[in-house]
Amino acid sequence: MNILVTGAAGYVGSVCAAELVKQRHHVVAYDDLRAGHRQAVVDRVHFVKGDIADTERLKRVCKQHQIEAVMHFAGDILVGESVRNPRLVYRNNVCGTLSLLEVLAELKIRRLIFSSSAAVYGEPKSVPIQEDHPTSPINPYGETKLVIERALTWYYRAYGINSAALRYFNAAGATGDLGEDHRPETHLVPRVLAAALDPDLSFEIYGDDYPTPDGTCIRDYVHVLDIAQAHILALHSLSKRGVSIYNVGHGKGYSIRAVVKAAEDIAGHRLDIRVGERRPGDPAVLVASARKLKRELKWEPRNSDLKNIIRSAWVWMRKHPKGYRK
Ligand SMILES: NC(=O)c1ccc[n+]([C@@H]2O[C@H](COP(=O)([O-])OP(=O)(O)OC[C@H]3O[C@@H](n4cnc5c(N)ncnc54)[C@H](O)[C@@H]3O)[C@@H](O)[C@H]2O)c1
What we know:
Layout: E1 2-6, H1 11-22, E2 26-31, E3 46-49, H2 55-64, E4 69-72, H3 79-84, H4 86-107, E5 111-117, H5 140-159, E6 162-168, E7 170-172, H6 188-197, E8 203-206, E9 218-219, E10 221-223, H7 224-236, E11 243-248, E12 254-255, H8 256-267, E13 273-276, E14 285-286, H9 291-297, H10 306-319
Parallel strand pairs: 1-2, 1-4, 2-3, 4-5, 5-6, 6-11, 7-10, 8-13, 9-14
Antiparallel strand pairs: 9-12
Helix pairs in contact: 1-7, 2-4, 4-5, 6-8, 6-10, 8-10
This protein binds nicotinamide-adenine-dinucleotide.
Nicotinamide-adenine-dinucleotide binds next to helix 1, helix 4, strand 5 and strand 7.
């Protein structure tokens, strides 16, 4: 298939694009590099620098490469920034995605995989969280993902665009050449490992008085390769299915202290840990039910064992201590 991957110079998109070329798809990466890295786009992927808001450019690229399916990763991901400055995340995640959907509708491209997020659920009422759990985002970032999920139903009915919205929990881990390099980095695994790599850095735990066994928050970490696999399975299941929603999580939760301990084990030394205040809006436990994805698409989180996640991210970070920077 000829597949357009938006946000393919970013963390999850780059891994997914690399997996798609391994399966002999023709992959076009479309990314304006506002947060991504050109070096993260592997050789056999055709790279185009462009903004998803540029509808005419997108249309030309899709026509030129006879695009048949789109995986849409591009978007703003910083939750705190979305609270401080919602107009930016609305413009990029909502207006930008509508620009992309415009192109799909006009060119009759009827397959789309959308990167949604567990942030659509907000404070969970029950865990593990199933897809039919009420959606009630507690920040603009989660709200933008939900707005698009809802639009997808109408775009299916009106224009026949089949889609799958994948609600990832915490993407983590690395492959041989591709890893996580966000600036600023707000994700736990690379932050803990950065502290393991640099003795001058300490690591702050945001609160240890939660109602969990060790008092720290529990989260669900899923290896980026398993997320890529979920995309590929969802793509193959798409035609004539309308709109599907799947959680992408390991289905197991680990506390922050458990992640720190795993990082200490792999690094072979103790970290300088400080315990700070709770962050507003951090639920005590966020764990996915991954049953639907396993049952319907036969997905298995083969790489998402915590040790494997930490080991792969550690290997990548040691090779790339400055991330993708030379
Ligand atoms: N990483 C996670 O744990 C996680 C969890 C849930 C959902 N998601 C979603 O998955 C997607 C990918 O996340 P990620 O961690 O790889 O993020 P990332 O920031 O590493 O990648 C996003 C990419 O999109 C590009 N981009 C952003 N706006 C663009 C625009 N207007 N036009 C063209 N390119 C643009 C950036 O340059 C970047 O390369 C995002 O949509 C995110 O909301 C990620």
